């Protein structure tokens, strides 16, 4: 399978991913030192880059292979491109229109994308069937993500930065000064920080660049936790119920991927459910053990779940009582932050009909009924499960009993999937709390093999950040405070 790699930039803190701006010397006052001169000549634009991604067969994203220094006068996209230019476009939508027309134009030295407002109809940098190559079914033409532009899959040979709001204002001012004086010297020019823009020559695939140390491998930490905790000096193997979610999003501009609905709403629901379960007794007596998994790297080729199953097969989790044959049921929480009227959809593989699968579906249905929500079985016309970590599990074992809980039925309801705009305004905390309650009850029913367990009565799901310190590690600090302010105890 393809392995992706990223151009050498990761060591740099975000604040260094800057653009330098070459300004004409405006002041006539005396300059006393070189740094002072530099300060007068340069201003810094703050932006987030589109970076170069490499896979086994080629390159995606943005790079600067032709030049060692990318520097040119700044201008807006409405002027004719008759000389080298750093082009300022107002928004990501305008950027897509621009590159459709001028993407191959040699005069494009670099592009600055302004902080345009989001398009109400939707915007997604991913394709219409994200990561379809991992689907455990034939139909790859299915449209899960109807607004997908596929921008993430494109390749550009010039740097592209998303500007901060303040820098957008400054860039607009500089571009209009240039236009006003007819691009006569001295002009305002942009010099792109190119540290991260150039791949060491001749390493155009992940394999060769990793060998040459001209890029870094993709990676990260996934998290596993067991209920009850396993005594590693005397592990007991029990049948396992897996509850899982993924925690990373991806967009065209690597560092602007809030992923509030997809996938963070699912992570928040899962952590709130687990938090509730951590405060009840009885798991020791249940016939099944609960294993909670939160994967990273899923948005870039399901790296986390594939690594987990690879290590499971090697026997690396035997000390945790976990082997390939112990996993009986898998419940995944996908995007749940937009469930309207607290209605969710349970997705399973079309062929999955085992008693274990039925038990998951029935537990979800009963749990919803007990918490004033609804869980419906997803449309039978769907080709199979939507893009999810469960795809990895089905590939590993087609007979696995697995269900993905989602806010949507036949296509994403998230109009900003894998977009810079999938922020907290894109989720409804009531829906996340409802999903958490359904999950907590479902997991008790499955682990206890009892839909009427007395323990169900003691489940208290809350979305309070003080009880979920893990939240602080995620991008959504503001969402968390929002949750603690408004989410009721359920
Ligand atoms: C790898 O990159 C090549 C070249 O851009 C692209 O055509 C191909 O679709 C990519 N493969 C995957 C799995 O994304
Ligand atoms: C971009 O940011 C500026 C400065 O904060 C703000 O005035 C403007 O409304 C923003 N533009 C959009 C389209 O959000
Ligand atoms: C773990 O297992 C060891 C070996 O059987 C035992 O001595 C120890 O008491 C167990 N620890 C707990 C916390 O049960
Ligand atoms: C969130 O969903 C609830 C229940 O469906 C609804 O009453 C509420 O208005 C929604 N909140 C927002 C901000 O859309």
Automatic annotation (TrEMBL):
Keywords: Glycoprotein, Membrane, Notch signaling pathway, Signal, Transmembrane, Transmembrane helix
Biological process per Gene Ontology, one example term: Notch signaling pathway
Gene3D superfamilies reported for this sequence: Zn peptidases
Sequence similarity: Belongs to the nicastrin family.
Protein name: Nicastrin
Main location: membrane
Originating species: Ceratodon purpureus (Fire moss)
Cleaved signal peptide residues: 1-29
Keyword Membrane: yes
GO CC terms, sorted: plasma membrane
Membrane topology: Single-pass type I membrane protein
InterPro entries, per database record: Ncstrn_small (IPR041084), Nicastrin (IPR008710)
Subcellular locations according to the entry: Membrane
Domain Nicastrin small lobe per the UniProt entry, residue ranges: 49-198
């Amino acid at each position: 399978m393809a392995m992706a790699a990223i151009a050498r930039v990761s060591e740099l803190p975000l604040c260094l991913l800057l653009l330098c701006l070459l300004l004409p010397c405006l002041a006539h006052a005396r300059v006393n030192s070189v740094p002072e001169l530099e300060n007068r000549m340069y201003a810094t634009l703050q932006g987030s880059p589109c970076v170069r991604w490499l896979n086994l067969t080629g390159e995606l994203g943005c790079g600067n292979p032709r030049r060692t220094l990318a520097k040119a006068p700044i201008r807006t996209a409405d002027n004719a491109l008759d000389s080298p230019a750093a082009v300022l476009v107002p928004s990501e939508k305008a950027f897509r229109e621009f590159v459709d027309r001028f993407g191959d134009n040699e005069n494009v030295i670099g592009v600055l994308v302004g902080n345009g407002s989001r398009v109400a109809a939707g915007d997604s940098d991913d394709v219409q069937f994200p990561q379809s190559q991992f689907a455990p079914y034939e139909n790859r033409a299915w449209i899960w993500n109807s607004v997908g532009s596929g921008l993430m899959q494109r390749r550009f040979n010039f740097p592209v930065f998303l500007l901060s709001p303040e820098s957008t204002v400054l860039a607009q001012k500089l571009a209009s000064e240039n236009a006003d004086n007819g691009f006569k010297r001295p002009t305002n020019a942009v010099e792109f920080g190119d540290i991260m823009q150039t791949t060491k020559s001749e390493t155009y695939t992940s394999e060769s660049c990793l060998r040459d140390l001209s890029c870094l491998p993709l990676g990260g930490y996934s998290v596993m936790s067991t209920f009850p905790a396993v005594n590693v000096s005397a592990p007991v193997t029990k049948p396992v119920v897996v509850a899982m979610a993924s925690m990373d999003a991806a967009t065209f501009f690597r560092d602007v991927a809030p992923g509030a609905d997809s996938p963070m709403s699912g992570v928040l629901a899962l952590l709130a459910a687990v938090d509730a379960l951590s405060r009840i007794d009885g798991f020791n007596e249940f016939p099944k053990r609960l294993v909670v998994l939160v994967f990273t790297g899923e948005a870039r080729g399901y790296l986390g779940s594939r690594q987990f199953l690879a290590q499971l097969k090697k026997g690396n989790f035997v000390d945790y009582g976990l082997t390939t044959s112990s996993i009986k049921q898998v419940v995944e929480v996908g995007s749940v932050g937009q469930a309207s009227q607290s209605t969710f959809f349970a997705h399973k593989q079309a062929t999955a009909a085992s008693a274990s699968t039925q038990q998951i579906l029935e537990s979800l249905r009963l749990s919803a009924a007990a918490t004033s929500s609804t869980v419906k079985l997803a449309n039978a016309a769907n080709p199979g499960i939507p893009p999810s970590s469960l795809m990895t599990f089905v590939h590993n074992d087609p007979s696995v009993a697995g269900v993905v809980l989602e806010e949507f039925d036949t296509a994403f309801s998230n109009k900003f999937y894998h977009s810079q705009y999938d922020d907290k305004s894109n989720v409804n905390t009531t829906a996340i709390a409802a999903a958490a309650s359904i999950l907590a009850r479902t997991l008790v029913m499955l682990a206890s093999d009892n839909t009427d367990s007395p323990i169900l009565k003691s489940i208290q799901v809350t979305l309070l950040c003080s009880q979920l310190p893990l939240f602080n590690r995620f991008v959504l600090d503001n969402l968390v405070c929002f949750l603690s302010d408004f989410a009721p105890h359920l």
